[in-house]
Fold this sequence. Notes:
- This protein is of the alpha+beta class.
- Helices cover 45% and strands 16% of the residues.
- The chain has helices at 8-15, 30-41, 55-62, 69-86, 94-97, 104-110, 123-147, 201-230, 233-259, 307-322, 357-368, 387-401, 414-421, 454-460, 465-474, 477-552, 555-570, 654-670, 686-697, and strands at residues 162-164, 167-172, 182-187, 193-197, 272-277, 288-292, 296-301, 340-344, 374-378, 406-410, 426-434, 439-446, 588-591, 594-602, 605-610, 613-618, 623-624, 646-648, 675-679, 703-706, 716-720.
- The longest helix has 76 residues, at 477-552.
Amino acid sequence: xxxxxDLVEYINKLTSLFAREKDYKIQGSIESLYKYLQKLxxxxxxxxxxxxxxDTEIMHLKKFGVLKHDQIxxxxxxxxxxxxxxxxxxQDLSEWFDKIEIPQDILEIDKHYDKKGEVIGFxxxxxxxxxxKELKAQIRQQLYKYxxxxxxxxxxxxxxxxxxxxxxxxxxxxxxxxVINAEILGRSQSGFFYIFPKTIEKLKEKEDNLKSQKExxxxxxxxxxxxxxxxxTKFLEFINREFDKFDHIQARIFMxxxxxxxxxxxxxxxxxxxxxxxxxxxxxxxxxNLEWDKQVLIITxxxxxxxxxxxxxxxxxxxxxxxxxxxxxxENSIIPSFKEIKPIIDDPQNVKNDISTFAGRxxxxxxxxxxxxxxxxxxEIELGTDANEAASxxxxxxxxxxxxxxxxITTHHKRLATLLAQNEEVELLAAIxxxxxxxxxxxxxxxxxGKSYAFETAKRYGIPFNIIEKAKKEYSDxxxxxxxxxEKSAALEFEQKQKIKELESELEDVKLLKESLxxxxxxxxxxxxxxxxxxxxxYNEAIKKAKEAIRAKSVKDAHxxxxxxxxxxxxxxxxxxxxxKEFKVGDTVKxxxxxxxxxDIKGKNALVDIxxxxxxxxxxxxxxxxxxxxxxxxxxxxxxxxxxxxxxxHGMRLEEALEKTEEYLNNAAxxxxxxxxxxxxxxxxxxxxGITELxxxxxxxxxxxxAPPHMGGYGAKIVKL
Length: 721
């Protein structure tokens, strides 16, 4: 499957992030796993340690076997990692982690292993280890005496101690036996000898005896620990499965963060909406935007125009969503849920099995005849047989299969496409060819049958001109007229598509302007409320003074103080900000401390040129500005206000943070800043998500990415203007 969809490299990249080798397909309820994934996606945690597959060890325990200490330690690495996760105190994940209650017996065993998996906490074992350490030091000391010996010096290859077969040795030339009695433990590639002096054999024997005693003690400890673990085999099986589940999730999260990918949960809907999808195999990708809500999609058009890659992209997006794999796509895309994805792509011809291309294709169609809720992709459906016969045959086959499944087809069969186009549940898509530059555009038009452009493609790939002209003469006039008709139809569709794009762009601008005006209005109301509160405070102060006057002075003085207080109250008037201001193109205006010129006006917004930067600004944020008259003409350059390179949004509501960020980016651009830092924190991820969406759409933002771990990590963004 992954070979047919060109996903091998992508899957290898994912599995390299696993803590241990396993199948990339995740087991369990996809909805439940997606819920955990969403909660963990905004968390900061360490990746799990590398762990071996422990199925054999669990089986060994069940059969009353004794595990080695390194096998026991593999279980303890899993235990320790879950202890680490539980100490993170993630309340929204407590339903998962609270189920993992580690038995006290296993926790006691864990105390007897250090970070490297060495057994600790046994007095007799500690004494033996200490004695072995002393003997090793004595042996090494004796070896260095030989290294520094004048008699042996002519025979020494170097003055180093070499480990050979687990033993420390000296490397010498032939003839050494004239000055030293030693045992040969091996030979180097250059013909030199690894020797161990016999004068220190007694020390070596003592060390070997101690090592034997150590092994006996370690075996007894392993036997005891294995007996204790055997009581908890059900728990070990459970935590082993849970570790794999978490491993699947963490690998997907780290891959998504590293490559800025999104997760799409398959939905129980018929409509598929792909927005800016890029196939993982493409380095330079032209994003795919597709809406498909019928049973069959037929893709026709120019050779080498991206038909096969579009088919693979549709199938890959469904396959990746089915297995909860991150992909390069807009998060508001919609991918239906399919029971299986079935690509019929490769040429099935096989000499060994005596099967032709066409027979192999028919065999693959037979396999899906009685399937249900499959997404089937067929590349070059006409492969291997007569075009006219195939058109009739495949029309009937597709009409039967589409009753319970959805199908994507690429074809050059105009007849097959024409026959199927009459069905209401069939949608057409044509690859576009750039006639002017004579090359494919890798874009598609809905609702039409595309021309193959075989002659143009042959010319582009180097077929001689005279051969192509001769082929054109052989081509029937009627067929040429049909191609011209198809070509004109495609051109008309393309023109309509461009107009729709322009209208959608204008509509998006109107929406942005509306949102900007709403934000401005809310800001004005907030300012009014603050001013009102300030004046009320002054009034309350006056009342307070009046009361003090009543208590301390005459009645006449008290009345005077009260009259002054009421006078203050009557002066509390709130001026409503005028949203509509009269401006025209060419007017010089003031925006905060910056001066600019109006280039265009749309509704309640103006396009203003401020120091070479063009910004859409609500008119009610602008003030008329008259240039001072000078004896000599001079260039007036606006002085941008001083702007900090950092913006801290911690503790703000999303709406407030978006307003602050919008204002900050405008001011930063005016101040000439090329790079700024926005700190939004991590929290529940609401603020981070909102800021990310704003930065993606903001016209002043060239690019942005998460800060390095030591400077905020996922809680901060570095923005280039």
